Amino acid sequence: MTGADPDLAAVTAVLEAVRARQPVVHCLTATVSMAIVADGLLAAGARPMMTETLAEAPTVTTVADALAVNLGTLSTDAMDGIPATVAVAVAQQRPWVLDPTAIGLAPVRTPLARALVDSRPAVVRGNASEVLALAGVGTGGRGADSTAGSDVAEDAAAQIAARTGGAVAVSGAIDLIVDAERRAHVERGTALLTRVTGTGCLLGALTAACAAVEPDPFRAALAATTWLDLAGERAAARSTGPGSFRMHLLDALDEVGR
User: Fold this and answer.
1) CB 17 within 8 A of CB 43
2) Are residues 112 and 71 in contact, defined by beta-carbon separation less than 8 angstroms?
3) What is the pLDDT of residue 99?
4) For the chain, domain boundaries
5) 34-44 and 199-213 are packed helices; what angle lies between their axes, rounded to 10 degrees?
6) Which of 41, 60, 22, 207 is nearest to 122 (CA)?
7) Burial class (CB in 10 A: 0-12, 13-18, 19+), 197
8) What is the rounded end-to-end Cα distance, in angstroms, of the chain?
9) Spatial separation of the C-alpha atoms in residues 10 and 1, rounded to whole Å
10) In the chain, which ranges are continuous DSSP H helix?
11) CA–CA separation, 224 and 151 (whole Å)
12) What is the mean pLDDT of each run of 10 residues along the chain (258 residues)?
């Protein structure tokens, strides 16, 4: 199977490493997507932890292999807990992923996301509108929905990658992964991934799992993006709509690359 699909063959080693090492991913993620993020990580072979309070989140991160920070439903607890938790991850050299969900016009999460870039996430993962807003050249999309294609955000993604020293993954009909020197396009997946809440949040957490076992952020982002896209294709082939797709997506995450 691996030899028949060159996209899968390019990332199989990372998928196998996730399953072999079962990294613990501390997820500060949107409440609306916690279930699919946790279930998706488990299906992929990783192990999720979730707490966002200032009292606990920094300490929990000390036993994690990677950190995923998602601003989707930013609470007061998370607003206080995220900077301190990121500081611990950075101090202990844990890879971390920033998912600047729905930034742009939002008056709290937008400056928070831009400030967090200075802590040099291994990967920034977002849609084109979010990446443009993070770079300061756009006002964001409609909530978590993008109003731009990934190609429009390529220059902004490159600017952010130069600032962080890591990679930027831009989700869209064609996914784009960028670092200071490389570009990759992933023309896989299914539109059903956009019709289930939390698949973008899951991709951010899956990227953190890959970053825990793959020291090259570009390769980690490419592996996670390809993994979810291929799982989406499998799930779509078995589904009659978004509800059944969600169920089949978890099975497919477990199957891809085996």
Assistant:
1) no
2) yes
3) 96
4) 6-255
5) 40
6) 207
7) middle
8) 8
9) 12
10) 6-9, 12-21, 34-44, 57-61, 76-91, 109-116, 128-134, 154-164, 199-213, 217-238, 242-255
11) 19
12) 79 98 96 95 98 95 97 86 97 97 89 96 95 83 57 94 98 95 97 95 98 98 98 98 97 97
Q: What is the CATH topology of the domain spanning 6-255?
A: UDP-N-acetylmuramoyl-L-alanine:D-glutamate ligase (3.40.1190)
- Evaluated on CA atoms 182, 125, 78, 116, the torsion sign reads positive
Which two tokens mark 167? 């990679």
Q: What is the pLDDT of residue 1?
A: 42
SS3 68: strand
- What is the structure's pLDDT at 98? 98
Q: How many angstroms separate the CA atoms of 50 and 40, rounded?
A: 14
What pLDDT, on the 0 to 100 scale, is given for residue 76? Answer: 85
Torsion angle of the four alpha carbons 142, 144, 147, 148, in this order, in degrees rounded to the nearest 10: 150
Q: What are the tokens at 93?
A: 């050299």
Query: What was the pLDDT predicted at 2?
Result: 42
- In whole angstroms, give the CA distance from residue 11 to residue 131: 24
> CA 95 → CA 77, 121, 215, distances in Å?
22, 7, 8
Q: Which residues contact 32 (CB under 8 A, 6 or more apart)?
A: 72, 73, 197, 198
pTM over 0.70? The answer is yes
Q: Give the per-residue pLDDT at 74.
A: 85
- DSSP β-ladder status, 47-49 and 96-99: unpaired
Cα separation of 184 and 225, whole Å? 11
Amino acid at 133: A
Give the SS3 label for residue 67.
strand
Q: Which two tokens stand for residue 48?
A: 């999720």
